[in-house]
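Sharing a chain and its predicted structure for anyone who wants a worked example. Both blocks are below, sequence first, tokens second.
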Amino acid sequence: MRLDPDLLLAGGIQEIGGLEMAMYKPRWGAFFKTPLEGHLREHGISTLVFCGCNFPNCPRTSIYEASERDFRVVLPTDAISGLYERGEEELAAIGVQLMTSDQIATGLLDRLARTH
């Protein structure tokens, strides 16, 4: 699927497959002047898992923005670059759950097994 630059630059969210969406973010934080919060709330999403590149910039900003909006936040420590010990301590202090990707996957599989 091709991205629709007009839609994205106008602040829209584009479905690119299944439950996968794309949006343009004009600044470091994913919530700043974007429709992300409304989209998540509309779909009943209350927990966010962040991964990405260069923790001190975009991921850190987006995590704090999510926390300010009362989303539960999980950070797979092995799926983000640039994470440092003091950053982990700061995140834990605001309630971010620090886990490995394997711990998250195991938790999701356990939860799925309990519901079926």
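Comments welcome. The radius of gyration is 15 Å.
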